[in-house]
UniProtKB/TrEMBL annotation:
<feature type="compositionally biased region" description="Polar residues">
    <location>
        <begin position="63"/>
        <end position="72"/>
    </location>
</feature>
<dbReference type="InterPro" id="IPR001752">
    <property type="entry name" value="Kinesin_motor_dom"/>
</dbReference>
<keyword id="KW-0547">Nucleotide-binding</keyword>
<keyword id="KW-0175">Coiled coil</keyword>
<comment type="similarity">
    <text>Belongs to the TRAFAC class myosin-kinesin ATPase superfamily. Kinesin family.</text>
</comment>
<feature type="domain" description="Kinesin motor">
    <location>
        <begin position="218"/>
        <end position="495"/>
    </location>
</feature>
<feature type="coiled-coil region">
    <location>
        <begin position="162"/>
        <end position="218"/>
    </location>
</feature>
<dbReference type="InterPro" id="IPR036961">
    <property type="entry name" value="Kinesin_motor_dom_sf"/>
</dbReference>
<keyword id="KW-0505">Motor protein</keyword>
<keyword id="KW-0493">Microtubule</keyword>
<keyword id="KW-0067">ATP-binding</keyword>
<dbReference type="GO" id="GO:0007018">
    <property type="term" value="P:microtubule-based movement"/>
</dbReference>
<dbReference type="GO" id="GO:0008017">
    <property type="term" value="F:microtubule binding"/>
</dbReference>
<dbReference type="InterPro" id="IPR027640">
    <property type="entry name" value="Kinesin-like_fam"/>
</dbReference>
<dbReference type="InterPro" id="IPR027417">
    <property type="entry name" value="P-loop_NTPase"/>
</dbReference>
<dbReference type="GO" id="GO:0005874">
    <property type="term" value="C:microtubule"/>
</dbReference>
<feature type="region of interest" description="Disordered">
    <location>
        <begin position="63"/>
        <end position="122"/>
    </location>
</feature>
Length: 703
């Protein structure tokens, strides 16, 4: 061991080297004085080292190197510990000779041996220095410039560098602490604001996303036309799809009778569109899973149309499943400072109406029957389904490959590797926000359905036939479900009525929806018309009520007029029988009977009598028309002039010649009218209208 001192101010550093010059550690020694001789120095060393580190001081002192003068550390005056000539020789075999030994005369052989030893020593020192340089604790460029033999200077430089760095480090620590405090003081309120902004922004993004989805329709349908296979080309088959790339939402299928059937989709991919183009369209909806939305993407179509190619793809041209998961991992990496995500993958297939776990190991596990159960939160689950956690896309790919191997496929004449089951990949995502601690679990379903098959065309039998029947049955059930969901049918023919689906159904026939819209418009129109007619009717009723009232008042007046001042003249009065439209001849004998009877004197009796004699009219209009009609006039002229006159006089009094009366009638009529209004619970608007009608009626009467 070698000790060197690097003294700085009142703090000194003890550089402890292992072996020859390999720096082992640096100890800080406080208030160490070396000025009073070696003994004191030794004891000071011991004290200092004891105070700083659990090391054996005597051992250190004994191994203090006695270097040749030429190589003795030329420490500066502050850092020098010169070896004590009184000390015993170093124990270390590698230590150089002591200064005492250096002065003794040597034999020539001994000298050359000594020289060889020195050279070896020098070599080892060089190696050590080189090692220090290479693995230097302080790789200082200054140190690299130090000449090799000047080890003490090198160590000194290391020490100095160390001190400087320690000071700098301390300074940086303090500065860092200061900045941290300042940052906490200044940024905490800003952080809260930012956090709130972030939360609001996220909510807004969710809301907008929902709106977009709503506008576009939750169910989006894309169509992909695969290119003709080599086999089809060889057979001379031609493409039955008529598709204009400029109009990427409309597609026509050429039927066998050359007629065309038109279909509409959200987007149509032609045979030149690759896997990437297809995936890009699904990307926004896939991304939404990371915001907590449940998503299902499924491929549906006839056998051999390219469903498995689209969903699974091939290793050199991977499909939606792989790309979706790759994207999810990518985005989760980008959001790693804000969110923590966990991914779990399951794979299952529905084969002949049985659920099989495709990730199960061995035939026993694979044949284990699984069921769909409704969870307490209303979601559906398959208890017992394996759901390994995945941390990277490579793990996912491995799982997809393994699961795919377990899938039931068979050969039909429509597709050599036809899927005989519906395959489902379920990705469960558990997310947690670092900002507000919000947690969610969402699911992405990637479904490759078995192809619909025309049994006559694919000519299957036995097991394949059974499979085909199951496939077609389940697809038809799915068709019913989708149809019911899309048309908002109250009865959904499967369990899951909680599904939210968008208001827009892209696959809808537009002509049909236009028809429906027209019908709805008509209905609305007729409802409006109905309301208008009802209002008219009420108005008419009011009119009628008010006129009836006027008529009643007139009638009363007529009879009171007849009864009191004209009693005598009534002797010549013959009541009119029957309707005025066919007015009867006045009958004097009747009147005589009436005049002599006691009934005559009683106004009420008279009223009863007159009511029976004077025809009633369905409306005041009718009465007015009647009294002034020429037919009536015919009956009222000649011998019955008095009666006629009376009639006219009544009319004249009431309607023409009595200016005070109409006002009074109007008041009475008004009061009655209000009563009618109240009785009929009619509103002020009608009241106003009716009042106008009443006045109008009155005016007409006066005229
Ligand atoms: N877009 C495409 N480009 C090139 N080849 C395709 C494309 N789509 C499908 N193919 C090829 O057509 C063949 C049938 O496709 P695939 O097996 O995916 O059909 P499928 O609809 O899944 O049939 P099934 O319902 O019987 O399982 C495969 O050989 C596939 O590689």
């Amino acid at each position: 061991m070698i000790f060197y001192l690097n003294k700085k101010n009142r703090t000194q550093e003890l550089l402890i080297c292992k072996g020859d010059f390999e720096l082992e550690k640096i100890l800080t020694v406080h208030h160490l004085s070396f000025s009073n001789g070696p003994h004191e120095r030794n004891s000071n060393f011991e004290t200092a080292i004891k105070a700083n580190a659990p090391v054996s001081t005597s051992r250190y002192l004994k191994t203090l190197p006695a270097q040749p003068s030429s190589r003795r550390p030329s420490l500066d005056r502050h850092s020098a510990i010169t070896p004590d000539p009184m000390e015993e020789a170093p124990i270390s075999p590698s230590s150089p000779r002591s200064p005492v030994q250096e002065d003794a005369p040597m034999a020539p052989g001994e000298a050359s041996a000594q020289e060889a030893k020195e050279n070896t020593k020098q070599e080892s020192i060089d190696n050590i220095v080189q090692a220090i340089r290479d693995e230097c604790l302080v790789p200082s460029p200054v140190l690299k410039g130090v000449p090799l033999p000047d080890l003490s200077s090198a160590l000194l430089l290391i020490g100095r560098k160390y001190n400087t760095l320690t000071e700098a480090n301390q300074g940086l620590r303090e500065e860092c602490e200061h900045l941290r405090k300042k940052c906490a003081e200044e940024c905490e309120p800003k952080y809260d604001i930012l956090k709130k902004k972030y939360t609001d922004e996220r909510e807004e993004r969710k809301r907008l996303y929902n709106e977009v989805i709503e506008l576009k329709g939750n169910i989006r349908v894309y169509c992909r036309c695969r290119p003709l296979s080599l086999e089809e080309i060889a057979k001379g088959s031609s493409c039955v799809v008529d598709f204009d790339p400029a109009q990427d939402t409309e597609l026509r299928i050429i039927c066998t009778d050359s007629s065309k059937k038109q279909f509409k989709f959200d987007h149509i991919f032609g045979h030149k569109d690759d896997q990437d183009a297809v995936f890009k369209e699904t990307l926004p909806i896939v991304k939404s899973v990371l915001d907590g939305f449940n998503v299902c993407i499924f491929a549906y179509g006839q056998t051999g149309s390219g469903k498995t190619f689209t969903m699974e793809g091939i290793p050199e041209n991977r499909g939606v499943n792989y790309r979706a998961l790759e994207e999810l991992f990518k985005i989760s990496g980008q959001r790693s400072s804000l969110m923590r995500y966990e991914f779990y993958v399951s794979m299952l297939e529905v084969y002949n109406e049985k659920i099989r776990d495709l990730l199960a190991d061995g035939p026993d596990q694979l044949s284990k029957r699984l069921d769909i159960k409704q969870a307490s939160d209303g979601t559906q689950d398959v208890p017992g389904l394996l759901e390994p956690q995945v941390g990277s896309i490579d793990e996912v790919w491995e799982i997809l490959i393994n699961g795919g191997r377990n899938r039931s496929v068979g050969s039909t004449n429509a597709n050599e590797l036809s899927s005989r089951s519906h395959s489902l990949v379920r990705v469960t995502i558990k997310g947690e926000s670092f900002v507000d601690g919000q947690k969610f679990t969402s699911r992405l379903w990637l479904v490759d359905l078995a192809g619909s098959e025309r049994l006559g065309k694919i000519e299957v039998e036995g097991e394949r036939l059974k499979e085909s029947q199951f496939i077609n049955k389940s697809l038809s059930a799915l068709g019913d479900v989708i149809s019911a969901l899309a048309s908002k049918n109250p009865h959904i023919p499967y369990r899951v009525r909680g599904i939210e689906h968008g208001p827009v159904r892209k696959q809808t026939d537009f002509a049909e929806s236009f028809k429906l819209k027209q019908m709805a418009d008509k209905l609305l129109q007729s409802e409006k018309e109905n309301i208008r007619l009802n209002e008219g009717l009420q108005l008419m009723q009011l009119k009628y009520a008010s006129r009836e009232n006027v008529f009643k008042t007139l009638q009363d007046k007529v009879f009171s007029h007849l009864m009191i001042p004209k009693r005598r003249s009534l002797a010549s009065f013959t009541p009119i029988r029957g309707s005025l439209g066919a007015a009867t001849t006045p009958d004097k004998s009747n009147f005589s009977t009436l005049a002599s009877s006691s009934k005559y004197r009683s106004p009420s009796r008279f009223q009863a009598f007159s009511k029976s004699m004077i025809p009633t009219f369905s409306s005041p209009h009718q009465r007015l028309r009647l009294t002034s009609s020429p037919t009536n006039a015919e009956h009222l002229d000649g011998a019955h002039h008095t009666t006629n006159k009376l009639c006219f006089s009544v009319q004249k009094r009431v309607i023409v010649s009595s200016p005070a009366r109409p006002k009074q009638f109007m008041h009475q009529g008004h009061t009655m009218f209000n009563q009618v209004l109240r009785g009929g619970n009619l509103v002020g608007r009608l009241q106003g209208t009716a009042q106008r009608v009443l006045c109008k009626n009155k005016r007409r009467s006066v005229i």
